[in-house]
Structure of TRAP-type C4-dicarboxylate transport system, substrate-binding protein:
Amino acid sequence: MKSATAILALVAASAAGSAVAADYNANHFFAERHSMVRGPYVEFAKKVSEATDGEVNFTVFSGGSLLPPAASLQGVRDGVAQVTYHAGTYTPAELPVANLIGNAAFYNTDPLVMAFASTEFGLTNEAALEEWRNNGVVFGGGYSTSEYVMMCNTPVKSFEDIQGKRLRMAGGAWTRFAEFVGAVPVSIPSSEMYTGLDTGSLDCAVAAADALDSFSLSDVVTSMNTLAIGNYYAGFEWGYNRAFWQSLSPENREVLFDQMAYYLAQHRVEFDADVEKAVTAAKSNGMQVYKPDQALKDALADFVEADEAVLIENAEKRGVENAEAVLEDYKKLVDRWDVLLAEVDRTDVDALAELARVEIYDQLDPASYGTE
């Protein structure tokens, strides 16, 4: 049997040999019905094809059918996919800047703010841009899950209840939070949450509550604690192969900018709607919902304050220069978007998309962005 590396190399060589073709691969490891795929990839691909008069056609591979989660960064760099979603936690050594800001998820847990702020950061911050270049990627846009909560097969109402509980965590700051409150972090992909809860190897899955539906967790979850344990946005929703991006005309890059602005907004509205729908259905089927007690809320606040020094130290160990300044630059963007989004109708996709265009994508030059 050929190794995964050999297979990637063969596919990459094939892709390189047909660089002038109009058909390209778009990769996402979530299922097609997930809000991060059905709009930002399936609908996006159709809109891009229409707007480029068929010059750019993406075939969407979902559910890990083209690239598994840990290989998506390498896969897009090598040309197996021309655009992909990538969860930065899988590659902390390759993406220390992305993981630095991704682990700052407790600074502001508003998913809309974090989606827009992480997008602007990834497109404009020089440390981030250098990191993308070093990995053979052109950053297209970010994302954010809805707030992470605890979905459990046993009641977790309080700080006392969380002691010793086995919590599925997304790694990084989430792992440290579990340890901070006396729980046991378990680092597994989201695709394994169901099995962990079903077999009892997990007590809770910490993730966005749409997972009650999108990962069928409502079958094995009996209670939920609404403590907002950050939200996930490390990596990118759209990362492009550099050779592919540079082969595009400025007009076609502008089409991608326009569609990414729209689906950055659309995804956030759809994700939150999916959460509300999934929670409502699970509650009607008997799931209990608990608010965190004050001791648990205080513990989270203490953790957020203490962990910032750890974020900076870890980033510096991985080679990030001036990590504290990079983090401060990101926090300024978060604060900026907190203000910009305060007066916008959060259910109006068109208004949110226009804000993303005006404040972010219109500031980029499609003739030069990604060509350095």
